[in-house]
Structure formats: C-alpha cells, structure tokens
Design brief:
By secondary structure, this protein is mainly α. Helices cover about 70% and strands about 0% of the residues. The longest helix is centred in the middle third of the chain and has 25 residues, at about 170-195.
Length: about 290
C-alpha cells in the first residue's frame, strides 16, 4: 500500500496508524547488544569529541601536558614547600602527580558526561539511537588526554628513579574504576540536567570542592583514623590510593576502605543506569 492508499484508507475508516519509537523496559544484555549494534556511531562521537576539544587551539593536544605540569608545580610550591605537607617519603611532585592524573581525567569526564544529553539535543530530538552512547563517548574520549599525561608521569618517575613494583599490573583496574566513577555519577547528572539546568552550574562548583575533599594535594595519613571509613565514601579516595600504590610501590592501602570505595562506585553505577533508563524516554520531550 502506497502513501496515497494509506491516506485514503485513513480517510475512509477514520483512523490513522501511528508507529511510535521509544524506550521500553529492557535487560542490560539487550542494552549492550544495542550499543554494540551502534558501535560505528559511538566511534564517530568519540572522534568528534576529541577533534572539537582542540579545534582552532594554538597548541592543540599539548594542553593535556600543560595542565598536569602546571598544577603539579603549583601544588609542589604551595603545599609541598610552604605548607610542608607530608608525602609519605616520596618527592612531593611525584606524589601529587600520581593523584592529579586520575583526578584530571575524572573531572574532565564528569563535566563532559553531565552535559552530554543536553549538548546533543539536536541528535536526541531527531533520530533514535541508544542514548547511553552519548555519555559513554564522553567518558571514553578523555582517555586520550590521560594517555598523553601518563607519558609525562613516566618521565618524572624515571627522573626520580622510582621503579613501580608488581602492583603496576593492577593499574588497569584503577583506571577502569576511575572511568566507572565518572560514568556512574555522570549518568545521574546528565539525566537530571535535562530537567534541571542548574546542574550545569553545579558541576564546576562541585568538582572544585571535590578536589580538596580528595587526597590529591595531601596524604590520607592526615585524615584521623576514626574518620577514614567515612572519608572512603568518596570513591576518588580509593582511586587515588590505588594509583599511588601501583605507581610508587608504597604500602598497599587498607583493604576495608578500598572495598568501600569500590562498593560506592558499583552502587552509583547500578542506580545511575536504572535512573537513566527510566527517564530517557522523556528526554526528547523535555530537552
């Protein structure tokens, strides 16, 4: 039946056939299959995010090197030399750089993910695809900057003749933990940002406070022992402690607080996925 016949059929019988494409209740396995089916779109979005970030930039991707070096220098002068904060026997510059790398990736990924759905409103309102692809692309694209900055860390470690121990084999686990943390929290924020645009103003402020609430410029040994369980509710604590353990060969972090940080990440991821899937069907209407 062609278009003219369809119109005549609707006119005669007094009703129209409408096909509605929307989200329904699906299993996680179905979501993963659908994301895999749209993997070309995911790759395209990742490439676009990387190119747009440094488009018409004077020094381009070198910003991935400048930012951690500048912050490491400022922290070393202010907190290492002036405040004389302890660094557990390691050079303060290396001690803080090991924490700055995962933190800078986390902050960048969280910022991009939290604004991802609103920023892609033209796509969301015009064509169907798995909406999870958008925050995933923001989370993955930041790994390019992380990899470049990690090369600088390797040079600094070599300069101070610090050789990581066997714990370096667990570094991919802590990188994955950083990614999942940014992705999980970003899912909550990007879904809320569609309805409440205040989230876009909250994220930079929250990230700034979060950095000082995490052991980036200082050691967790400064936190009173009876407060460390509460302190470990911050999942970045487990990430930073894991990075320092893997890269510096320091004593392994306490297993209890580490598992607590991991449990918080898993909880945030599960609830974030549930919340995102429940609200994604309204994105196109609200955005």
């Amino acid at each position: 039946m062609n278009t003219r016949d369809d119109a005549l059929h609707d006119h005669v019988f007094g009703h129209a056939h409408v096909t509605e494409i929307g989200s329904d209740v699906r299993s996680l396995r179905a979501d993963l299959r659908e994301i895999w089916a749209y993997r070309d779109l995911l790759t395209l979005l990742i490439r676009r995010d990387i190119s747009v970030r440094y488009k018409q930039s004077a020094i381009g991707i070198a910003w991935a090197v400048v930012q951690p070096i500048v912050l490491m220098t400022i922290f070393s002068i202010v907190f290492g030399r002036f405040a004389k904060l302890p660094s557990e026997g390691y050079p303060y510059s290396v001690f803080t750089l090991c924490a700055l790398l995962p933190w800078l990736y986390f902050a960048r990924a969280l910022s991009g993910t939290s604004d991802s759905i609103v920023g892609a409103s033209n796509l969301v309102t015009k064509v169907y695809f798995p909406r999870l692809i958008i925050p995933i692309s923001k989370t993955v694209s930041g790994l390019i900057d992380f990899a470049i900055a990690f090369g600088i860390l390797a040079v600094v470690l070599a300069w101070y003749r610090i050789v990581p121990g066997v714990a370096i084999l667990l570094l991919p686990v802590f990188i994955a933990m950083t990614m999942l943390t940014a992705f999980a929290i970003g899912l909550w924020l990007t879904a809320l940002n569609v309805k409440y645009r205040d989230i876009g103003l909250l994220v930079p402020f929250m990230t700034q406070i979060w950095m000082y609430a995490s052991p980036i410029a200082y050691s967790t040994t400064l936190v009173p022992e009876h407060w460390r369980w509460i302190y470990s509710l911050n999942p970045i604590v487990g990430v930073v402690e894991g990075f320092r353990w893997a890269l510096l060969g320091k004593a392994p972090p306490a297993m209890g607080p580490m598992l607590l940080s991991l449990a918080i990440v898993v909880l945030l991821l599960i609830t974030g996925l549930v919340h995102f899937r429940r609200t994604e069907r309204t994105f196109a209407d609200i955005i």
